[in-house]
Amino acid sequence: MDSAPVPRDRPSYRRERYGPRERVATPQTPIVPVTGRPLARPGDFILTHSSGWYGTLIRFGEALRYRGSYKVFAHWSHAGIFVDDSGEIIEALGGGVQKRNISVYDETEYVVVHVPVETSPLDRQHAVEFADFCLHDPYGWLTIISIAFCENAREKLDHVTPRERRDAAG
What's the confidence (pLDDT) of residue 9? Predict the structure, then answer.
């Protein structure tokens, strides 16, 4: 009897864009959720952008890295993770890693990325615990330059060298 592996669908992330004066609903927020849009839950995250120095520098680096159909990712320069049901997020800002409420983004555009429904509560909890662990860590120019250097070096080092090809061929 022949058996073939059963293909598994990849879990899908759901993205919802919010414009100025719109806010994602959470289980404990007093706003009425828009029909068809899921509630933001711990472990979901936001993507947004800023016009400040940090955001400009990050978008510049992303524009150098992302090409073709991936160029759209250079629009976003900032991320935060939801850590509770009331809309609290943890994010890295110029003054360090901080906890704030999603309401600080009421006047800007952002996207909420909802992790797949298959994501276990334990996985969500671990993501939130790691974000809590990072609270008050420093974040600034040195961090951004370090990330840029590592990303650029990784891109250069990810290819297989001729020696590695020869060694792999035997």
Answer: 58
